[in-house]
Amino acid sequence: MKIEDLLRQLTLQEKIDMIHGCGFFRTKAVERLGIPGVVTSDGPMGVRMQFPDDSWIPVGETDDYVTYSPSNSALAATWNPVLAYKSGKELGEEARGRGKDVILAPGINIKRDPLCGRNFEYFSEDPYLVETLAVPFIKGVQENDVAACVKHFAVNNQETDRMAVDTYVDERTLREIYLPAFRAAVKDAGSYSIMNAYNKFRGHFCSESKELLDNILRDEWNYDGAVISDWGSTHSTKGVAESSMDMEMSVTTDFDDYYLANPLLEAVQKGEVDEECVNAKVRNILRMMFRLKMLGSEAPTRKTGAYDTEEHRQQAYETAKEAIILLKNEKVLPLTEERLALQPVKNAQGEIISARKHKIAVIGHNASHNHASGGGSAEIKALYEISPLLGLKKALGGNVEITYAQGYYIPGKKNVNEVNWQEASLERRVMGQEDPDSEEQKALRKEIEENREKLLREACEIAKDADTVIFVGGLNHDYDTEGRDRADMKLPYGQDELVEALLDINTDTVVIIHAGSPVEMPWRDRVKALIWCYFSGMETGTALADVLLGRVNPSGKLPETFPARYEDTVTYKNGEFGKEGRVEYKEGIFVGYRYYEKENVKPAFPFGYGLSYTDFRIDAPELIKVTPFADNEVLCDDELSYGKSCDNKDNACVVLSVQVKNTGAVAGAEVVQCYVSDLECSAERPVKELKAYEKVFLEPGESRRLSLSLPRRAFAFYDAECRGFVTEHGEFEIIMGNSSADEALHTRVTL
Ligand code: BGC
Questions:
Q1: How far is the CA of 231 from the centre of ligand 1 (A)?
Q2: Ligand 1 centroid to 411 CA: how many Å?
Q3: N or C: which end of the chain has fewer CB within 10 A?
Q4: What is the predicted pLDDT for the residue at 1?
Q5: Going by CA atoms, what residue is nearest to atom 8 of ligand 1?
């Protein structure tokens, strides 16, 4: 009613003002009626620096330094929904503290291919993992009277030709892989806003896709929140006016000429577009504003937020330490205090005359490089960022000698700031893949080559002279970036050669790969200690040092499969990734581990994998409840929400419990993963699919019985003919373990 009252009082011009940007990140207020403008900001790892309304050169004051939180890929590596909730809460509080109404996060697209430039912003290759982390994250954000803007809806899985690529995905795959997290974001988390993607979906831009926005989002999911366009994803006036997209935002300064600005005003005045189309959009925006307490009697009680608090920094640390993944460890880690302690130096008489410091050589550009300010719209001005080198030095103090060498050469950026990438983001040319044969690229390769030798030599020298060698390499936001996919999965800048050289010198060299997406690690059989660290926020270095020194026991698990070689991926094989124009998702539902398991391709490290400094035993599975379901019956709407059905054990079809014991000597956390395998089905099913998981913290010797509930949805598949999820009677295997490759525990159920 309140919405209708306001709507009646608004003039057409005022309504038009409310549905398009009048600055890069805001819409106009209607002061006459006390309606404020909507202020948005990126992004997923913290609230982005302040921009003027009409320039992509940041304002440049000192008041927009913020908490730099771990990326979604890091958050996903924690496999911890409680941390997801707390991270969302922290981000929402920062956003409100900076005076924002909408935070353009989280990004929840599926990692379809390891080369996608924006994978670091996304959670996982598995829809269940994405959904179970995105829902608490969004709830956390919105507790602060700030809207999450979940993005990018939908089927937005590559950066090449990102403004126009036309994606074709079959209905079952769409429903089983690409939509569940969006559905959950909208229906279970109640995201107040959602961002449509740049790409086309089945021939139509997502900003005006009837299938996505009208049929699925509005009609099927009953979404009444605001749909915001990605910046510059709108391509028509009438089409978009008549679509379910509500607010046009872009990167250019011709605000009055946006499709939903003067052109729409004129179209309505001429009778070409019904004013009711405008009203529908304004209604959705007003509804969001009421929910945010920007309007209405509750407005004086709207939360005020806070940024840069001690608590937020602590939160960033908590997530970072659980995000670190130990991939290999043959008795090298942790670096114990004993090993690093001062060693007495004795004279000929055996008297202690002094002490010798343990020498650590830290090698690699990523050891002392900061990442917060890169990557595209996820860039932020971090209040601070603890690099791995700083983290280690501050943890160890003066009695250990740390030497550092850059190890590999990063060419300097040319023409920085000449054109802001976002300003140019609508132009294909700038955002496309670099041509390897261009003169510029050739010169770059030469420059790298010339410097490589020298840095490699320096690194080897300090490695030879050290007791312990730690390499910190990986990628940076020249690779993990919006607007561009990687050309291959190799470590750049000659790092493979450097790692091999360091292993020749010291077989115990600890290798830390700091990156946002998988890389090939051809030396992985040789290395004894291997740590994976996604972009993990301002406390990355503190967390890494704590893990290296055993003050924190690593508990991260891979939220995506790391293939051994890019050639092993299904998208490489079917050639349907990173193309311009039309991309067909020919692999169907077989994304990530669903593909590797089907074809028996052994990855370098499987989905869900990660080691600890202690050992766990998972055993004694017990079936607590089995309730058979109806054969061939379509699931009702409520049954599609894992959240709703799992919270309530009465709704579960299968409840089982399993014993987890910490059998080692230090406290630690294990993630018990539960996969379901359909043994007989009329449709082709993946070998198994993740359907439940739980992270459990245990003291040495402690054991706990976990109970896991599987709702009917966990056994269902999408049947395109029935246009719904169905379950079929038959036998299912429930597999529990600590990674997708751990299949020791099987339980059979007949449903
Ligand atoms: C990105 C969005 C981002 C927007 C605003 C676009 O380039 O795709 O994720 O929120 O810019 O900066």
A1: 6
A2: 27
A3: N
A4: 67
A5: 230
In the reported structure, the alpha carbon of residue 230 is separated from the centroid of ligand 1 by a whole-number distance in angstroms of: 6
| Ligand 1 proximity of 153 Cβ (cutoff 6 Å) | no
Rg (Cα) of the chain, in Å, rounded?
Answer: 26
Instruction: Quick: pLDDT tens for 559-570.
Output: 999 999 999 999
Residue type at position 717: F
Q: Ligand 1 atom 11: the closest Cα is on which residue?
A: 231
d(CA 658, CA 670): 13
Å from CA of 397 to ligand 1 middle? 42
Token pair for residue 27?
């819409």
Give me ligand 1 centre to Cα 425, in Å. 10
Question: Measuring CA to CA, how many Å separate 127 from each of 122, 218, 288?
Answer: 11, 21, 27
Average pLDDT of the segment spanning 500-529:
98
Measured from the Cα of 151, ligand 1's closest atom is 9
Q: Is the CB of 151 under 6 A from ligand 1?
A: yes
**Nearest-angstrom CA–CA distance, 285 and 18:** 8
Q: Is the pLDDT of residue 432 over 50?
A: no
Burial per residue of 232-264, b for 16 or more beta-carbon CB atoms within 10 angstroms, e otherwise: bbbbebebbbbbbbbbbbbbeeebeebbbbbbb
Ligand 1 contact via 534 beta carbon (within 6 Å): no
**Atom 12 of ligand 1, nearest CA residue:** 377
Among 80, 98, 75, residue whose Cα is nearest residue 26:
98
**Closest Cα to atom 9 of ligand 1:** 377
DSSP, collapsed to helix, strand or coil, labels residue 422 as coil
Q: Are 117 and 480 in contact (CB under 8 A)?
A: yes
Interaxial angle between packed helices 81-97 and 127-142, expressed in degrees from 0 to 180 and rounded to the nearest 10: 40
pLDDT higher than threshold 70 for residue 551: yes
Q: Which of 41, 104, 198 to mutate to test the pocket of ligand 1 (most atoms within 8 A of CB)?
A: 104
* Ligand 1 and 48: CB distance under 6 A: no
Tracing tokens 């509930």 back to the chain, one arrives at 709
Catalytic residue ranges: 230
- Measured from the Cβ of residue 600, the count of other Cβ atoms closer than 10 Å reads 7
Which protein residue's CA is at the shortest distance from atom 3 of ligand 1? 377
CA–CA gap between residue 691 and residue 680 (Å, rounded): 18
For the stretch 166-206, pLDDT in tens is 999 999 999 999 999 999 999 999 999 999 999 999 999 99
The candidate with the shortest Cα–Cα distance to 98, out of 43, 16, 34, 175, is: 43
262 alpha carbon – ligand 1 mean position (Å): 24
- Asked if 38 and 367 touch (Cβ cutoff 8 Å), the reply is no
Instruction: Give SS3 for 458.
Output: helix
Q: Shortest CA distance to 281 belongs to which of 376, 365, 207?
A: 207
Ligand 1 near 377 CB (within 6 A)? yes
Hey, CA dihedral for 320, 86, 152, 292, is it positive or negative? Answer: negative
Ligand 1 in reach of 230 Cβ (< 6 A): yes
Number of Cβ within 10 Å of residue 596's Cβ equals 23
List % helix, strand, coil for the chain (3-state, nearest 5): 30, 20, 45
Q: Is 104 in the pocket of ligand 1 (CB under 6 A)?
A: yes
**Closest ligand 1 atom to the C-alpha of 376?**
7
The secondary structure of residue 467, as a DSSP letter, is S
Segments of 574-727 assigned E as strands? 582-584, 616-626, 633-634, 654-662, 668-678, 689-698, 703-710, 717-719, 724-727
Give yes or no for residue 418 having a pLDDT over 80: no
pLDDT above 80 (res 436): no
Distance CA 136, CA 72 (A): 13
